[in-house]
Amino acid sequence: MLDEIASGRDAPDREGLSLVSAAAGSTVFFYVTADGRYCSVLHSAATSASSCTARPAEGIGPAPALERWFEGDTYAAGPAVGLIVAADRETVLSFSCGDERLALRKVRVIEARGATRTIYAVELDQYSAGVLRAEVVRAHGRHKETLPLGTKAEDLRAGSDWPVCG
């Protein structure tokens, strides 16, 4: 299966593939290449589609932070929109869109120079705009953060059926 997913420069490092999402007939994986780029691949019997960051991932930041790496329907195995999020120096307890608490999956933990980056997967029922609210734990207790989605609420056209998170 690895040969079908990626080879050469886009092949996974020694850690291999980490499960993001699974549904009947398809699976989404996250992985890191040998040169440090982050990748995601949707794999099924019929197709395999992958995307990788253009450059190696930045080092783990000096301060706690959330960063959205991938967003779209190819990042969820079922009929959903998936997000792959990195949390530096903190643990995500929950994500929500408005009052709806979203399913959260810990995908991988990356350790570098005494710091931790945790990769999470989150799924929305459909494309949405605005920001997700997150509850995180870091060195000094629980905190609330926001994570902008790829589309801002103000960028939606009048009459759009996209939900607005906020």
What is the gist of this entry?
This protein is an all-beta fold and 166 residues long. 2% of the residues lie in helices and 54% in strands.
Compute the CA-based radius of gyration. Answer: 16 Å
Helix content: under 10%
Report the structural category.
mainly beta
The rounded distance between the terminal residues' Cα atoms is 39 Å
**Which series of helices and strands comes N to C?**
HEEEEEEEEEEEEE
Mean pLDDT: 91
Gross morphology is globular
Provide an overview of this structure.
The protein is mainly β and 166 residues long. 2% of the residues lie in helices and 54% in strands. It has 1 helix and 13 strands, in the order H-E-E-E-E-E-E-E-E-E-E-E-E-E. The chain has one helix at residues 2-5, and strands at 18-23, 26-32, 38-44, 48-52, 65-72, 81-88, 91-97, 100-102, 104-112, 115-124, 129-138, 141-148, 164-165. The strands form 3 sheets. Strands 7, 8, 11, 12 and 13 form a 5-stranded mixed β-sheet that branches. It has a 4-stranded antiparallel β-sheet with strand order 1-2-3-4, with no helix packed on it. A 4-stranded antiparallel β-sheet has the order 5-6-10-9, with no helix packed on it. A hairpin with a 2-residue loop joins strand 9 and strand 10 (115-124).
